[in-house]
Each structure stands twice: as C-alpha cells, then as structure tokens.
Amino acid sequence: MLASADAVTLDAANELNDVARKRYCDPAIATISAWLVLVTSLEINDFRYFLKLAYGRKAKDKGNIENIGRRGKHYLIDNVFLSDNNYVASLVAIRLGLRDAIIDAVILYFLTYAVVVGLTWSDVDVESNFLLIIRGISYMVSASMLASIGWKIPLWLGFYRKSNFNFLKDTSSIAPQAVLDHVFEGSSLASFRYQVRLGVGKHTISFVILLLPFYVNLKVHIYFISLLVGLVFGCVYQYTVFMLRQRYKRHRGMVAMGASAVLLLISSAVFMAGIRFIDIVWNWNLRLAYWKIGVLSYFLWLTLCLIILGMYYYEQKLFILAEDDENQEEELVVEKKKGDDIQMSEEYDTTGKVEAETVLPGEDKRYSTGCSESEEPMNNRANRRDLYRKDSMESYIYETVYFDRITLTGRSLSRTRLERESTDDRDKTTKEIHDEIAAVDEPNRNIKWYHRLPFLPVWHVLRRQNATTWSCCRKNSDFYKQPCQYKVWHVFVNILRILIRLVALFLTVIVITSTAETRTALAKLPESFKISYEKQNEGAVCAFDEKFGNIREFASKDEAHLANYTIAHCGPCGACSTWNDLQVQYSTRHSLALLGRKCAQKTILGGAEAAFDCVETTIGFKGDCARCWVDSFLCSKTFCSFIFLQSTITNRIANFKVSPKHVTSAMCSEASCEAGNPGAFVRCSGANRRKMGIKSDIKRPLDEQCRIVDVDDWGSFFGLE
Asked: What does the UniProt keyword field contain (predicted)?
C-alpha cells in the first residue's frame, strides 16, 4: 500500500517536473515590471503635484511663504501660474527626465540580461536542477511583489495614509526637495530634470541585482513576453485603481480591504507554486501526499501577509489617536482666540496643512508647518474614527493613479490650453518654451555623450541609497528622532534588503563561474578519457606475487604472467598500490565518493593538513596515498569549486556521474585533476576502484573498467565476505 502511494507521489512529481521546465513567462520579471509601472507613475505625478503646489504658493504671495498653501486647492487650479512659462518649462523638464530614466532602465536591464545570458547560455545544462531552484525563487519573489501591491491598495485608494512601515517605497522622496530647490532656490531646468531622472531611477536600479539570477538560460522571447505582461498588468492595475477611487468614494474602505485580500490570496497561491518547484529538487515530502507541503506553505504565507496587513491597520489607528490629541490642543487655542478676527476655518484647516507639509520638506524651517511628512491629517469635517476622508480633496495619490497623465509626448499639457491662456507664447510649443528658458539658465551648457549613459545616475542613486541605509549610524540623522518601532523596522528592512541582494548576486556568480568551469572541463574531458581509458588494458600493469605478497610493476600483462604474478590493477603502480590501500579501495567501494567529498570540504577552512588527517582517519588511506588524495582535493578546489557549490544548492551533491552529458563535480575533477591536465591523481595513486575492476558508487560504462585484473572477487580475496 505504501509502495503504491509512493508510486503515485513519484508520478505526480515527475509530471510537475516536466511542467516546471517549460517556461513561457518569468513571474518575477513580470511582477517587478508591473511594480515599476506603478511607482513610475507615482513618482512622476509626485513631481507634478509638488510643482503645481509650489507655483501656486509662489503666485499667491512670494513674500509670505509660510502662510501659502492653507487654501492650496484653489491655487493649484488657478490660471495665473498655469500660463507661467517657467511652470510650463518645468513640466517639460519632468517629461524629459522621465524619458531619460526610461532610457537608463532599458540600457541597464538589457545590458545585464545580455551579460548574464552571454556568460551562461552555451554550456548550462538545460535539465539542471539549478534552473528549477531559480524558477521556484522567481515565483516566491513574484508572490512578495503581489503581496506588496496588496498591502499598498488601501493607501492607493485613499483609505490609509502614508505608512512608515515600508519595505518597498512607492515614491523616492526626491520630489519635495527638488521642487523646493528649483522653484524657490533657483536651480536650473537641467538640474531639475536630472532630479526627476534620479527619482525614477531609484526605483528601477533597486531591482537590477535582484533580477540577475532569473536571466540564467532565459530565452529572449520569454524575456520580452515577461516584460510585456508586466507592463500591461501595471497599466491595467493603475486604471482599475483610478476607476475604483472615482466610483466607490463612499465605500472605499470595503473595496480597499476586499481588493487587498484578493491579491494576498493570489500571492499565497504563487508562493505555494514556488515552494513546490523547489520541492521537486529537494524532495522534502517524498513519502507524504504531494500536496501537503503546498497547502502548508500557502497558509503560512497567507498568515504572514495578514499579520503585516494588520500591522498597517494598527499604525493607522495610532495616527488617529495622535490626531485626536492634537485636536484637543487646537480646541483650547480656539477658545482663547474667540474674539480675534482670524477665521478659525482657515487657521485650522487641516487640509491646508496636508499640502503645506507634503510640498516642502521639513528640513527647511522656512517652508515647514511642523507636520510630520509621514502623517497626513484627515479633514476636520470627516469622522475622526474613519480611516479615510470621504470628502478628501486632491492629494498626491489622486493624480498618481491616472496613467494617461504620464506621456512621453507631453500631451497632458495641451498646446490649445497654452494658446488660450498665454498671449505671449501662443505660437510656441512647450518644448520650445523649455529650450529657451534652459538656454538662458545655462547658456554654455554642453552635454557630453557619456552623460546620457546611466552610469552617473546609478552612482548618484547608490550614494543616496547608501546614505539612507546607514542613516542609523549617524547620530545627527532623523533616524534617532523616530519612535522605537520605526527604528527596529528600519534596521530589519535594510538588513533584509542587503541579504536578498547578496543572495541574488551569490546565485548569479555561482552559475556564471560554474559555467566557465564546465566549459574548461568539457574541453579537457576528451583528452582525459583518451589518456585514462583508451589503452588501459594494453599498457603497464601492477601485479603481486601470491606466495610472498610482493607488489611490483610490469610493462604488460604478459610479462606479469610470465613472472607468475597476479595482476592487481591496470596501469603503473603508485602510492596507493599497497595492501592496506588496495583493501581500503574495496571496503569503501560504496562510500568512498561521499567520504572523499567530506574530507575535501576540510580544505575550505582547515587546509591541506586537516584534509590529510581526514583521509587517514576517516577513509583509511595512509602516507603517500593520502597525500595523492589531498593533492586531488586541492586541484578540484581550484578548478571545480563552483560546480560543487551549484550541486550543493540543487541537491545533486551525491551525483557522481562522469560523462559529457552530466555536469557534475566528479566529471570536472576527472577532466582537470586525473590525467595530467594539470592534476595527475591517476599517476600518483596508481590504484583506484575502476583500475582494480571494482564496481563502485560512481556508475561507469564497461569500457572504463579494467578487464584484465586476475582477481575475480576482492571481497573473498581479502576475507571480507
């Protein structure tokens, strides 16, 4: 009965194994592409929103900046600054910065794809378990991205405020300072455009290293299909969020939580698929029903996702409680100022505070209203216990979800509108207005060709990320002003990000380097086979005198027989052609490969002497024979270490097949370390199991076994059986 269940399980594993090797779309690439569509939209509209608000303030009152923004909504749509050429030129600079960032992303992603594919395509074994491991990880990364989108839905639908518990940020926080410098500090259009480029680039660059392992053996058409699927999904998702915001203004909370739950369920299913792919390789549950590990992983992942969603909900409650305390203080102030001429509806208009604190960063005290950048207070007219504003006005979220506002042609700023609102420049296009102002800003600016490449932006983005990552190490940073839970989260997230990138880089380096080792081994293998096996039954032999036990070498088997000697093994005698070592060859015939691997691992940390002690005590070879084995270990460490690491990851560490069709560490060792290219283990040791005609744990064809040995049964000869 158990055997029957195992057979069914094995059949299911084989069927899923076949399905897993067929790749039509890489889920990690697709979901990351979709995420980049979403955050690019958010980032660009962040710049546009802050720019509109800043010019609205500037148009209202250039001399009293602190009071501007209390009625920001009216000034955002005021026609005065919409006809301002500087504002129009800034919008064009945002569009050009987006174009530059997209070009950077295309160059980076296609360049890294070409490098990885070029280094791994030709010699990677398509049937390798390593590809299944990568496939499983791809599904798990996709599940993480879907979960992140699910956690963000309440925020994007206006149900939640900005959270400080972010693993993936949807905006870079570059826009507020960039707009401040450009509008109020006089930075040039070129500088503002470059900041837009960095803002979008911060999102795209963060996934470059993570995607490297998924390029391994990935065909070009699958790569393009994955990108296309992600882009389409991202655009459709954006538009769906926009429509939900418009249609369900009164039931936004229910819609947000429902949509979030659906995405988390989908994320759990994708995570389960990834675990099952990895289980194909590692056989975690070979004697259990095959679906059990899938169901277990599904509910564990779903539980984790719901815990994080609950953490976000708890944070929103804390925002509300904190706001209630602020309102009590405000009511006391109102009572004291009842006789004043100031209108309280304007003085304590929370909506104005939202825009005042979101447009200009708190670092510059001239433009700050004292509100936290992460908290967006709710409208006073809304119920304080609601988690969303039913009558909320335009916010940074409002414009981010309408993807038609992001166009490379700049049609969101129509020429007809400019002609209607501007009398001085009615015949000029927006690009011409931008070019004129840019020429005045920097008349001698000469852009070098290499400035258009993504390398300088990558460097600047990495510097910014490094400053953010290690902000906890600077005593004067804002990190020390945060509550304890945010500090813990900041440290945890940054450590996790570093570990994820290191793992991705580690896997990529392993597969690239193991591919190079495979190329070398495959090139050497024919010559190694020729030297070792072509004439092994015709050349010198090592024989012994059964009467006295003497062991000596003869030029041929005929000479040995004429001298009344019994042939012990093919080939010349060596350091392992002693009675002790010959007996060890037979007694460890089913375990020598594994024992040798364990001793070889000693060279990693303990060096040659630790490996030598292991060979003598664990295996049983003595003296010079043990030295030959240690030299072989060191040779394999030099030429085959990454193939060994790859086999460890893919659960093929016990696969000792030696043939051009199977890329194993045993094959690599034989190609590089046995026949003098450069290792010479066979000549050094003399005796080994295949030369003694012993069938071992390494399966070999008959033409690789010595057929002239005179001992038919070594077990009986040594009295072991």
From this structure: Membrane, Transmembrane, Transmembrane helix
